[in-house]
Design goal:
With 261 residues, the chain is α+β, with helices and mostly antiparallel strands. The chain has 2 domains: 107 residues, Rossmann fold (3-Layer(aba) Sandwich), CATH 3.40.50.10330; 135 residues, Probable inorganic polyphosphate/atp-NAD kinase, domain 2 (Tumour Suppressor Smad4, Sandwich). The protein is 18% helix and 35% strand. The strands form 3 sheets. A 6-stranded antiparallel sheet has the order 5-4-15-12-7-8, with no helix packed on it.
Amino acid sequence: MAEPMQVLSDHLTKVGITLLAEDEAAKADLIIAIGGDGTMLYASSRARDANAPILGINRGRLGFLADVTPDEMISSVDHVLRGDYTTDSRLLLQARLLSRSGEEQTAFALNDVVLQRSETGRMVDFETRISGRYVNTHSGDGLIVATPTGSTAYALSCGGPIIEPQLDAIVVVPVCPHTLTDRPIVVSANQSIEVRLIERDDTKAEITVDGLSMGSIRPDDKLLICAANNRVTLVHPPGYDFYEILRSKLFWGRDSRKRDT
């Protein structure tokens, strides 16, 4: 059986669509990502630069971003080409890691920005501020700052809430907090979040953005996270239903007491 990529490529060529190489993404009118959520996250970086929408074909496992199955791929693409689709604008985060020396690194996240301990079995201690206001001093394995899109990713596994994708909100989720009252907080997307590492013996931590390392963070550094100026647009064929995806992926609406015989 032919791979979905080849099947799609042949179909698009047949109906007169020009296909572009990856390094020509800036010229694209539509980006089609075939894979799981990791592929969609990679495609989002290309889409942000190209200002092009993304259609996701799901070949992953649990993924929430790519909602078209391989069996529906050709019909869904044809719907989109005919203009029969809906769009979904997704919030992006901008992460800035500022060092004491004045150096700055910037990255963008569709899912999340994560502070996590590294190379040590000890907890990390860190402080958070929201729009300049002190929030808490945390001890634990780290912190997740996630978009509504990322609320169904790592943040969900750490007890964070599911946020409807159209909400302009950011969720701040402690990872394995030492204090059980250290709970997730949902804040407006127009607020900025500041994270500083507190120096302790053997303190080592790093920052990841959509699963990719941004580098180490030191006690003298400052991590600033806010909503980015631009967004990523997802394209959905007819029948898209966010809650149907939740039911399918999380097995909602099923009676666990019933067993197949």
